[in-house]
Amino acid sequence: MNTIEEEALPTRRRRRRYTEDFKARVVAACQGTGVSVSAVALEHRLNANLLRRWLDQAEGRLPKR
Fold this sequence. Notes:
By secondary structure, the chain is mainly alpha-helical. It is built from three helices and no strands. It has helices at residues 20-29, 37-43, 48-58. It starts with 19 loop residues before the first helix and ends in a 7-residue tail after the last helix.
């Protein structure tokens, strides 16, 4: 008798892909004075570090991938 129930394997998370238009709109939302990058990231359900990378890329400090 098998007492361990077979559990379904969890599905693998897929990496999200964002369009250039979406990135541009979110970056533009961060351009105002006194705007919190963290708040904009939370509003769009993004990681703040990812948004910071997009900002650096938009300002030419990092090469685009």
